[in-house]
Amino acid sequence: MSKYFPVIGLEIHCQLATRTKMFCGCEVEVNTEPNKHVCPVCLGFPGAMPVPNKKAVEYAIRLGLALNCKIDLNAMWTRKNYFYPDLPKGYQITQTGGLPIYDHPICGKGWLDITLSDGTVRRIGITRIHMEEDAGKLIHDMSPTGSHFDANRCGTPLCEIVTEPDIRSPEEAVLTFKKIKQILEYTGVSHANMENGNIRCDGNISIRPSEDAPFGTRAEIKNLNSFTNLEKALTAEMLLQSVTLDAGHEVVQCTKRYDPNADKTTMIRSKEDAPDYKYFPEPDMVRLVTDPAFVEEIRRTLPELPDARRARFIKDYGVTEYDAQVLSDEHNVSEWFDQAAKTCKNPKMLANWVISELLRGVKELEGGFDAIKVQPEHLSRLVNIIEDGTINGKIAKQVFADMFATGKDPDAIVKEKGLVQITDSGAIEKVVRDVVAKNAGQFAEFKGGKVALKGFFVGQVMKNSGGKANPKMVNDILDRLAKE
Ligand code: ADP
Ligand code: MG
Ligand code: ZN
User: Which end of the chain has less Cβ packing within 10 Å, N or C?
Assistant: First the structure.
């Protein structure tokens, strides 16, 4: 097969974390009784008038600023008409419409940076971010009536983030999607929970024979709801397009879906069959005029973003680039670490504990990171009492296991179980001499130069002291006795 170079652009939809819907006062609540939160506005009764949710607008602007977008202070609403049983209104209020005169989304051009595995930073352009309302939900079951309709989701606020076709591989697409999810979490704009469908991604991909050739014809793959599926769908489509071109055929522009079981993309519709939404300016609303002072206030109160946080972890806490990456990857983990590190005498050691013990434990924990019982201050304290010699690293692991299971503080566990490290050299020497006496032959060999036996002696002493002897002191005493 010939070598081709992919060109990729993403469209990411996310649900905004507002309390109420986009154009009415109905509450946004998931997993509740069907049709509990409805009113004439979100059901589209004739004459009901929509009013934009200020919090949703604030969130969209906050997201735009976090993605370096230009904010349109005179944005516009358009009406996208289509019939589908999950849409009682028969139209959606949005901010797109194809024609340039309709194209005034709340956020214009921006960018974000992604860091590739080799450390290279790539800048991906953002074309625009627009706001719109979601449709309802159809529920199909085996009951005699078959399908049901739940309007709770009708009118919930969404943002759609569109990237420029700047992405050059499925891996870069995943990094871009991840970074956007991360920014949604850091800004609090969306819960960005993929399992709950708060965020999903459409991938557009075309291929070309060289890196400077004109762009090829693209396919759009809808509704990719995990990083793995995004990567696999793009890879499968790339392969399919390569085979198509190699066979001398042309790629036709179309909309597709990805079937993870078959690892294949299949066509939903071709460009010719694309629905005509008959867009026009939304007649029930005036333009969305935003006060520049409102934008400046949002800019001023923008929280620390992932890149800045990563840099600060390296600078203030002395952690490695890799550790900083892992610790800032998820917002809740980064908040937790930050809080713990503030009171820790050795944040670098703390980082190791979080990454190798805490996060490993979380993998097997039902409910994930949010379900952990360990308090940040407690892990910080554990590291501090290793640092000041109260307990050694080995005992610390035992204490940590208890902390992880019960949420108790380390001092209480150490006290309760009598785990304080033995640093009394006389007491340690007594144990060492005991072990030496019992293993006289091996000790003679050790003395004679068989250094590998040292581990055996240290191990025995640790065992006989219930793991509590200070390991450095054990080593020192053994060395001294060997020279006697
Ligand atoms: P539409 O509204 O039909 O989906 P857009 O112009 O909004 O069209 O583009 C949608 C996405 O397709 C964007 O993310 C853009 O970057 C991407 N895109 C555009 N042209 C190409 C191409 N030739 N190859 C791959 N992606 C493309
Ligand atoms: Mg599209
Ligand atoms: Zn409503």
Answer: C
